[in-house]
Specification:
Structural class: alpha/beta
Largest sheet: 8 strands, parallel, barrel
Number of strands: 16
Distance between the termini: 42 Å
Strand order of the largest sheet: 2-3-4-5-6-7-8-9
Radius of gyration: 24 Å
Bound molecules: 3-methyl-2-oxobutanoic acid, zinc ion
Shape: globular
């Protein structure tokens, strides 16, 4: 019997701390449901004390997730812990994750506390968290640069106070695999009550070693890994969930543990997180990159055709790259559409929502011969976006683009219950369209990112556009999909403007403040 390796996903907390990756409450619910289908054990949904928006998001995720534990982060402060406990009240299973820094530099420069005071705060925080839930995780922040003797003292004290998971973070990504693995083995051997808690790791990728450090820790006894979809996270990111999970699964000969992850859901999660955050996945990214299973060299292709094991160590379908996906088309009926959506894990909240999605599907099928799973996922994104509060809607867009002529665009928007039309010229059709919209909405925001990805192959594929706008320190991502990328761009821009005009949910304070 192998041990269980607990997979703790922090895409919606640490991942969200990457500049530009902020997520709305509804986006977090979608990601939360996808992580539940992936069978993640623990979903860290946010940092409730950071802002009212964060609190509401954690609360909303806690209410909808039934099959995974939902976790909220809290500094070792009474108010943070109470807010986390409050936000998690509706959860089927909840965890509070509290932390305080233990490295000399953090204790002196950031906390201005003595080591004894740090231990006191840690113990008090864990005891307080236990009043809300039996599942309490403690992290000595910057453990990678902390003194091992001191770590032993803090960790022994928090286990006595009721911590059930001890998470060892390499906060600044400073560790090296062999040394990090040895630290885990030493802590587990030296702390007298170590057997009363699960050891976890949380590695950052500043030296590109987050996955290697996490796996080294697992080989030395850690039984929880904190990770994120696509390796999203502060600075260079966190350990990538898909890489950790597939390494443990593929090399089951060397790991004495297994996860309960349904690996076939990995790709869907990766695409969802990439679409929502606007962080594209590089083509050569392990597991989820477009080229991860592509064999270009003739000699490789020949080998794979004769026997796939010659060059493939994993099966593409095992991580969600399905070779024979069921394709829908314009003759597919409502039942076929609904049943494929159910297989993809989407449940419609009402008959009206199903009808709306089906109408969008029919419109798309008129323009595009074959509808793939990725197209269906884009339809769901559109239905979700339409359910968000929208002050501005696209009614019509007319573009004139001709060689040797200056492109012009005329846009009609529903703008606070009125129809408004304006036109603009631009460097190209997209530029002219976005300038025409901006003439009406006048956000004066800076365009921080504009990216287009084709959802499937072929020139009739839908283009999925992400627009990131920045204004007065606030960053929002807008999304739009259409077979016409100019229209997709206009939809994405309008989506971003709607978000910019919604109440400011900026996080305050940040994790590093204490
Ligand atoms: O990197 C870090 O130290 C963290 C902790 C809150 C676990 O994110
Ligand atoms: Zn972190």
């Amino acid at each position: 019997m192998k041990d269980r390796l607990v997979i703790f996903d922090t895409t919606m907390r640490d991942g969200e701390q990457s500049p530009g990756a902020s997520m709305t409450r509804d986006e977090k619910i979608r990601i939360g449901k996808a992580l539940e289908r992936l069978k993640v054990d623990v979903i860290e949904a946010g940092f409730p004390a950071a802002s009212p928006g964060d609190f509401e998001s954690v609360q909303a995720v806690a209410r909808v997730i039934k099959d995974s534990t939902v976790c909220g982060l809290a500094r070792a402060l009474d108010n943070d812990i109470d807010r986390a406990g409050e936000a998690l009240k509706g959860a089927a299973r909840s965890r509070i994750h509290t932390f305080i820094a233990t490295s000399p530099i953090h204790m002196q420069m950031k906390l201005n506390m003595t080591p004894e005071q740090v231990i006191e705060h840690a113990v008090r925080a864990v005891k307080r968290a236990r009043q809300f839930t039996d599942d309490v995780e403690f992290s000595p922040e910057d453990a990678g640069r902390s003194d091992e003797d001191f770590l032993c003292r803090v960790l022994e004290a928090v286990i006595n106070a009721g911590a059930t998971t001890l998470n060892i973070p390499d906060t600044v990504g400073y560790s090296i695999p062999q040394q990090f693995g040895a630290t885990i083995a030493n802590l587990m051997a030296r702390i007298p009550n170590a057997d009363k808690a699960i050891f976890s790791v949380h590695c950052h990728n500043d030296l590109g070693l987050a996955v290697a450090n996490s796996l080294s820790a697992v080989m030395n006894g850690a039984r929880q890994v904190e990770c994120t979809i696509n390796g999203l996270g502060e600075r260079a990111g966190n350990a990538s969930l898909e890489e950790v999970v597939m390494a443990v699964k593929t090399r089951h000969d060397v790991f004495n543990c297994q996860t309960r992850i349904d690996t076939r859901e990995i790709l869907t999660c990766s695409k969802l997180v990439s679409t929502i955050t606007g962080f594209p996945v590089q083509p050569n990214k392990a597991i989820v990159g477009a080229n991860a299973f592509a064999h270009e060299a003739g000699i490789h292709q020949d080998g794979v055709l004769k026997s796939r094991e010659t060059y493939e160590i994993m099966r593409a379908e095992d991580v969600g790259w399905s070779a024979n996906r069921m394709v829908l088309g314009k003759h597919s009926g409502r039942n076929a559409f609904k049943s494929r959506m159910t297989q993809l894990g989407f449940e419609f909240a009402s008959e009206a929502e199903l009808n709306d999605a089906f109408a969008r599907f029919k419109q798309l099928a008129d323009k595009k011969h074959e509808i793939f799973d990725e197209d269906l996922q884009a339809i769901i994104s559109e239905v979700d976006l339409a359910s968000e509060e929208e002050q501005i809607k696209l009614i019509a867009l007319k573009v004139c683009s001709e060689t040797g002529e200056i492109p012009t665009a005329t846009v009609t928007l529903q703008w606070h219950n009125q129809e408004v039309i304006d036109s603009s010229t631009g460097g190209g059709a997209v530029d002219a369209s976005l300038k025409a919209i901006e003439k009406i909405v006048q956000t004066e925001a800076t365009l921080a990112l504009y990216s287009v990805n084709n959802i499937t192959n072929g020139t009739d594929a839908q283009g999925e556009v992400t627009v990131r706008l920045e204004k007065a320190g606030r960053i929002v991502n807008g999304l739009g999909a259409d077979t016409d990328i100019v229209i997709a761009s206009a939809k994405a821009y309008i989506n971003a403007v709607n978000k910019l005009q919604s109440p400011d949910q900026r996080r305050h304070p940040q994790k590093g403040d204490v």
